[in-house]
Write a structure and sequence with these properties.
about 375 residues; alpha/beta; Enolase-like, domain 1; TIM Barrel; 2 domains; nine-stranded mixed beta sheet; 13 helices; Enolase-like_C_sf; Enolase_C-like; O-succinylbenzoate synthase
Length: about 375
């Protein structure tokens, strides 16, 4: 859309919400992994359609009963009552509702997809992206042993990933990093603490020891709400400190920048509440001189397509998260699949919007529950209309 082209008002005519059950690609190894993630997860796919039949898609990860009710009874009816000219205005529809960034994110992405399709432009270009492809990274959770860790890293490196992100915790940090670096001395490596460390002397000693390994970043060592601890550690280490779950809004990002709590940001669309706030967070972090990459909340193809579009922005300076070798989910509805090839994920530029189609048969097979909402209310969705 050119700067001189007049904006048109968009009115969402219908919203289709489909709860899908996504089986994992393969069983998780280790008792701890099994405790952390269920064998199957439920996500919601949402489709918003305008009066002309143009539609946009979004995804809401990890949907429970409360989140489904928020989507169907709160956020979707509010969006149906709200008209907007640009997708940046869509969030005004639910500004007075209880905060649920994941639900907001799914509808926000769907509005961006719709708006891009109305104008015949790829979503990455609508956001201001400049890339034709992104460099992909992959996360490896804690493994049962050092040997299994090295084997898993070898599998991902063999698949072409350029950056490996290891999960660490007290007692599982220096040794796995050393083991991986001895086997892959030129590998780009970063670590995430997932908030498991404290400022206990033993924890601080272990974190400071990571300075000797040339890591790309040490991410989220302390609790979400302890920006001050991150700021103190940042002053004490050469390695870049990155934030993840500490930043769930523009306000918390502003606080982190003001406190100099980090030098890098794991930017997640679902945690921020959609592409609109995520793009603004990208701008603020990049302006502050921070490195930025796009993370994941375990999204399937539709959600990952939005992540890829966001990762095309010029301030994304580090490899962004993609599923590793073997994938996450055994089945997906996005066609073609959104994944990395030899460590690179292409950005769709030949189709408007997200650039991926919906496999209707797979969507119907995975659907647990579906509802269609319009200006007359809600009703169970016709199975034939799911895609």
């Amino acid at each position: 859309m050119s700067r001189t082209e007049p904006a048109t008002v968009t009115r969402v005519a219908t919203i289709d919400a489909t709860l899908v059950r996504l089986p994992p690609a393969h069983p998780r190894s280790g008792a701890r992994a099994a405790e952390r993630r269920p064998r199957q997860v439920q996500h919601a796919l949402v489709r918003v359609t305008d009066d002309n039949g143009v539609c946009g898609w979004g995804e809401i990860p990890a949907v429970d009963a409360d989140r489904w009710r928020a989507l169907v009874d709160g956020f979707s009816p509010a969006l149906l009552r709200h008209s907007w000219m640009r997708p940046t205005e869509a969030a005004l529809a639910w500004v007075d509702l209880p905060h649920d960034p994941a639900v907001a994110s799914g509808l926000d992405v769907a509005c961006w997809d719709l708006w891009s399709k109305q104008r015949g432009t790829p979503l990455s270009h609508a956001l201001g992206g400049e890339r034709t492809a992104i460099t992909a990274g992959v996360t490896i959770d804690r493994q049962p042993s050092l040997d299994s860790m090295v084997l898993e890293v070898n599998r991902q490196v063999g698949s072409g990933f350029r950056r490996i992100r290891l999960e660490i915790e007290p007692g599982w940090d220096v040794e796995p990093i050393r083991a991986v670096q001895e086997s892959f001395p030129f590998l780009v490596l970063q670590v995430t603490g997932r908030g498991r460390y404290t400022e206990d002397p033993a924890d601080l000693e272990a974190l400071r020891a990571l300075d000797e390994y040339g890591l790309l970043a040490v991410e989220q060592p302390f609790a979400d709400d302890d920006l001050a601890a991150h700021a103190r550690l940042r002053r004490d280490m050469r390695t870049t400190i990155a934030l993840d779950t500490s930043v769930d809004s523009l306000a918390t990002l502003d606080d982190a920048i003001r406190l100099e709590a980090a030098g890098a940001l794991n930017l997640r669309v679902a945690r921020m509440g959609g592409l609109t706030p995520a793009r603004r967070a990208h701008d603020r972090a990049a302006d502050a001189g921070w490195d930025v990459w796009c993370g994941s909340d375990g999204e399937s193809g539709i959600g990952r397509a939005a992540i890829v579009a966001l990762a095309s922005l010029p301030g994304i300076s580090l490899p962004s998260e993609m599923p590793g070798a073997g994938g996450i989910h055994a089945r997906d509805v996005a066609v073609p699949p959104v994944r990395a090839h030899d460590g690179i994920t292409p950005i769709p530029l030949t189709q408007p919007g997200l650039g991926h189609e919906i496999d209707a048969r797979t969507l119907r097979a995975l659907a647990v529950r579906s509802v269609t909402l319009d200006h007359q209310g809600s009703r169970p969705a016709d199975a034939a209309s799911l895609a």
